[in-house]
Amino acid sequence: MQACKRPKPLYEQSERIDWRSPGSHVVAKKYDVEYYRAELFSQAVTFGKYIPVFINDMKSQFNFKRHYIDLWGQLDDLIMINNWPINKFAIVGKVTGESHFDKRDYSGARIRIDDSSGKDSNVEVLISLEQYEAIFPEPGVNYGKLVEVRGVFKNWKPVVEDIVVVSPTPNDSTSEILHWNIRVQFRKTVLAKAWKFDATAAQGDDVPKRESVFYNVAKNVAPQKSMEPITETPRRDVGSVTNFTGTSPGTQVGTIHGEAGASTNDTKFVKISGVSDNSETISQALLDNKDRYIKLVKESLIAIIKRLFNEITLDELVSDRFVLNQINVFAEVLQRACGYLDITYRQEIIFRLALYFRDSELFEFTDNVIKPLKFQLMYYSIQRKLSTRTQIKTLKYVDYLTKKLQISNCDYKLVNFLIRYIVSTSDLHWRYIKDEIKWVKS
Asked: Where does the CST complex subunit Stn1 N-terminal domain lie (predicted)?
């Protein structure tokens, strides 16, 4: 017997909309805010991802029943903030209460969380006893610990899928401010503005395109392939790729020597035309000083982390004082080696840094803007591992990241670098065992 094919969810049935009829995708409008048919909800950048929100915003959700009265029974798995549909959430707050309960064959715990986001900034969530014991080895002593809760909605109420301790230190203001800023930025760049769906782009297409809106993602959000059209931007002519390591063709380029170097699987040096009359000489000098280039990449990644993974232009990145210092030192080294004007080297160095972000699967780089989407997911995944595990086998974890982030390759030395950076900038205590290529909690 052939299994019945499950119908597509309502939120993905955009083909039901008659795009030939102007305005058929709008169910209501108030001032300049439009409310769209539920079939388009999956096109919103807030849908299908764990969205970083404040508890107060989540509990003060917009009552959209009057706009969707005929479908109200089918919309119990989402809320709406402004006109943005949200079906997954990520909240971070301090534990202000905990208790156990037993109901028939089910044992669990009630956790009260407060993120100080407003007059209604606390929420009580239910988790299983297994979840509780996994994050709180000792009951009754967890007041003030910072936790992150990820979940979905059922009957318009939050249902926990995952909960982790972000900081075991009670009243850790540094970690609290970090996650507060993530939610402030998301509110400012997305939720504060009304969702505008471009119907003209959808006309004549079977499936409309998700509009491009920048936003910060809560840590450990499940990655999705972009639904945005890929656009080509003008580039300078690039010749053949010069092998970064100097090994035979086909060998992975961009690896870094050392137990925790800042490598990337996409780092490449290339010969370019039209940048300088001495490109071949300069390219060779760059290859001879690849360690200096690696330091530049490391400093660039740190600058992006410190900016909370907000999108950044290449010009802004190279204006960061630490990144600029690496560029200037690199340029001076190359000038001493080749004797040409250092301005040429700065141009060459910045151009190769641009190529790194263009070619890396962890970043989107268009129109001179760097969007660290998958790099952010990688960083938060590592951060979560360090908070919930006692050891990390780097190579095994790299395989996991490769699948999770949907990338073709993930360099274990980049992972090691990020682990070392997170440990060095927090109160976590881990040590690296080089012979076993793993990290253990100490």
From this structure: 32-211
- Token reading at 173: 């203001």
Question: Do residues 209 and 242 both lie within one domain?
Answer: no
User: What percent of the chain shows pLDDT beyond 90?
Assistant: 35
For residue 358, give Cα distances in angstroms to 53, 150, 313, 325, 352. 30, 32, 12, 22, 10
**Per-residue pLDDT tens for 110-133?**
999 999 888 889 999 999 888 898
Domain count within the chain: 2
Are 288 and 417 in a shared domain? yes
Residue 101: domain span: 1-219
**279 assigned to some structural domain:** yes
pTM: 0.48
Residues 204 and 267 in one domain: no
Cα 21 to Cα 367: distance, rounded to the nearest angstrom? 34
Which residues are 365's β-sheet partners? 370
Structure tokens at 333: 């080294």
Asked whether residue 381 is domain-assigned, the answer is yes
| Residue 410 CB partners (closer than 8 Å, separation 6+) | 265, 378, 398, 399, 401, 402
For residue 357, tell me if it sits in a domain. yes
Pairing of strands 269-272, 146-154: unpaired
